[in-house]
């Protein structure tokens, strides 16, 4: 389904006719768009997913390809806008397949596929059906340093999946992070695949960087203050649940007590607040073994 607004307007009547016998396909329609963020730098969107591309002298750097359909759509858009410009680099934000699939739709044999080493390891170990990174790094890597343009990649430790990095575009001063920083919305459901203390540590690290705009892999674009507020939410979630466990309270009681009401304006607050608490609780119990400690009272079965 390749619905860019311009082509959609041209071909709408044809698509309506062809879609009519299979109404199920209408539900699978994904809205896609491209928006400028700064000089030469764009955010592209496919449904609830966001990724970026940067146009430079010798080609185009694309961050996550997302999936085959999205990547094919983007490829068409890039060919239309920048005829003859190759995709010079693909950068995987982390190892998860809902962000890394579809790479072969965008890459040719000269495209460098870049990731942190741990992300590459997962893709190889799990036999993921996407392009294996050809360039890996451990802590930091700077791309395009020969032009008047830099992309600084940095690993901050565990936070979401494996090998999840931050991407800083200079001179645009735009920071791009996928999944472990989300603006305008709660972290996803019960934090499956996330490391909450690691998210807090990584987010503190990126707040020390100088950036004007933030672009996430989901939800809204924002500024440094938004990232600071997001960190405040993570800390309130973590500390509230931790203190409930230390006081010997059950998960049900902690869900009632940790109101997080300062953040009630965030999207999905009503549906996901308790799930976030449950995720934090499970990480502190199953990951940090808090209930195995002699100093922590065993919670009652129900309160
Ligand atoms: Zn994601």
TrEMBL record:
Domain of life of the organism encoding this protein: Bacteria
Keywords: Hydrolase, Signal
SMART domains noted in UniProt: Lactamase_B
InterPro entries in UniProt: Metallo-B-lactamas, RibonucZ/Hydroxyglut_hydro
Single GO MF descriptor: hydrolase activity
Metallo-beta-lactamase domain segment(s): 49-218
Protein's recorded name: Glyoxylase-like metal-dependent hydrolase (Beta-lactamase superfamily II)
Signal sequence residues: 1-26
Organism for this UniProt entry: Novosphingobium marinum
């Amino acid at each position: 389904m390749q619905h860019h607004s311009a082509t959609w307007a041209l071909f709408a009547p044809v698509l309506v006719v062809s879609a009519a016998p299979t109404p199920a396909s209408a539900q699978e329609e994904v809205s896609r768009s491209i928006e400028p963020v700064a000089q030469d730098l764009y955010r592209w969107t496919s449904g609830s997913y966001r990724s970026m591309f940067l146009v430079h002298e010798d080609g185009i750097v694309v961050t996550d390809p997302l999936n085959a359909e999205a990547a094919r759509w983007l490829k068409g858009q890039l060919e239309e806008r920048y005829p003859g410009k190759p995709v010079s680099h693909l950068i995987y934000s982390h190892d998860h397949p809902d962000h890394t699939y579809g790479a072969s739709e965008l890459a040719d044999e000269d495209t460098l596929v870049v990731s942190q080493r741990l992300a590459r390891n997962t893709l190889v170990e799990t036999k993921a059906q996407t392009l294996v990174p050809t360039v890996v790094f451990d802590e930091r890597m700077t791309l395009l340093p020969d032009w008047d343009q830099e992309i600084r990649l940095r690993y901050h430790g565990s936070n979401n999946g494996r090998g999840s990095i931050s991407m800083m575009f200079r001179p645009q001063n735009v920071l791009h992070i996928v999944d472990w920083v989300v603006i305008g919305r709660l972290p996803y459901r019960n934090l499956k695949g996330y490391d909450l203390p690691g998210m807090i540590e990584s987010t503190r690290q990126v707040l020390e960087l100088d950036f004007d705009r933030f672009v996430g892999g989901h939800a809204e674009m924002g500024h440094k203050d938004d990232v600071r507020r997001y960190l405040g939410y993570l800390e309130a979630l973590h500390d509230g649940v931790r203190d409930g466990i230390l006081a010997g309270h059950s998960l049900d009681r902690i869900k009632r007590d940790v109101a997080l009401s300062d953040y009630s304006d965030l999207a999905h607050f009503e549906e996901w607040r308790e799930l976030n608490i449950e995720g934090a609780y499970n990480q502190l119990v199953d990951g940090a073994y808090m209930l195995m400690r002699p100093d922590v009272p065993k919670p009652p079965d129900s309160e």
